[in-house]
Amino acid sequence: MSVFYDIPILIPILTFVAIFLFVIGVNRYFRMLARKGAMIDKIREAGEGTLRVYRDPALIEAEEKAEKRPNPLMNLFSFIGTRLVSGKDEKQRADATSGRAKFLNAGIRHPNAPAMFWGAKIFFTVLFVSIFIFCRLTVLRLAPAEVIFLLGIVAAAIGLYIPEIWLDLKIAKRKKMIFRGLPDALDLMVVCVEAGMGLDSAMTKVAQEINLTCPSLSEELRIMNLELRAGKSRENALKNMAVRVGLDDMSNLATMLIQSERFGTSSSKALRVYSDTFRSRRFSLAEEQAAKIAIKLMFPMIFFIFPSLFVVIAGPAVIQIYQTIIKQ
After folding, report:
1. Is 305 contained in some domain?
2. Would you tell me the crossing angle of helices 199-209 and 215-230 to the nearest 10 degrees?
């Protein structure tokens, strides 16, 4: 049993840590490549109107083929999820696709996103259970049945909830980006409306101006303008934008604009009042975060800074006392 507690239990833990760090490294590498490509595309789109550069037709065709090239992993997730959802009745299928609002909050608008999500959950569950079974047959032979059962449940739960955690992190990151870019967008909107532009034209102009600083908010404004051009009312378009973003501040902005249009009040005054209110709220949130710094610094000081200070201050005295006692 001592061998079991010393070595075998460390092997699956180290294997999981290595796989986890490898997945994180690969994810960050591909995200860096995607970010670089997105920045190049934005610069290229911004320069198309002012600078015309000759491009080889063969190069353009190769780029279009690369953009249309399917992702094998996403295709696998879609195949598994489609098989999973298609085998259910209508009620269960509606439950499986009812979380589309979460995908919209994360900026994922692919029509097959729920199927890919469920396919990813099944794939990672099977993957982690397979890794656990491999460890069970190689290094966990002496483990009790209770420990094996508990570790199997933990491995399946980790694989099942990894896509959930990834989706929640993506939603939180996008909401934070939109929350940071909303004050500047409101200021630009106020300037455009007070300059004589209509609200729809002002939103179109703001979407163009903040494309580089806050692409998520710019995309949402563009989608709202497309809905307006397609024939939807401004009230429905604003409500849809609030649902896609998922922020309370965006819902309040949509409600304010809807009420100003319904009651015939000035949109510029309403936007200015809301902009001032939103900045005051941001200032209050910043003060709240600053007040929490003292409590958050307590744990690093107790566990890292105070022991170092204690060793530096009391170390020489302890050594002298020890040497004195030994000499006596």
Report:
1. no
2. 150
Q: How many domains does the chain have?
A: 2
Cα Rg, the chain, nearest whole Å = 28
Tokens 């290094």: give the residue.
Answer: 139
Q: Would you say residue 41 lies in a domain?
A: no
Give the whole-angstrom CA distance, residue 307 versus residue 188: 51
- Distance (Å, rounded) from C-alpha 275 to C-alpha 194? 14
Q: Are 207 and 186 in contact (CB under 8 A)?
A: no
Domain edge (last residue) among 175, 190, 217: 175
DSSP-derived 3-state class of residue 28: helix
Q: Are residues 125 and 13 in the same domain?
A: yes
Q: Which domain covers residue 67, as residue numbers? A: 2-23+57-175
- Is 306 a domain residue? no
d(CA 98, CA 221): 24
Say what the pLDDT of residue 77 is.
66
For residues 102 and 167, the answer to whether their CB atoms sit within 8 Å is yes
Q: Using an 8 Å Cβ cutoff, are 84 and 122 in contact?
A: yes
Q: Are 142 and 245 within one domain?
A: no
Is this prediction's pTM over 0.85?
A: no
In 3D space, the residue among 13, 171, 181 whose CA is nearest the CA of residue 101 turns out to be 171
Q: Residues 263-285: pLDDT tens digits?
A: 888 888 888 888 888 888 888 88
Is residue 6 over pLDDT 80? Answer: no
Instruction: Quick: pLDDT tens for 178-216.
Output: 988 888 888 888 888 888 888 888 888 898 888 888 888
Q: How far apart are CA 37 and CA 32, in angstroms?
A: 9
In a domain, 199, yes or no: yes
Does 147 lie in the same domain as 103?
yes
Say how far apart CA 271 and CA 234 lie, in whole Å. 16
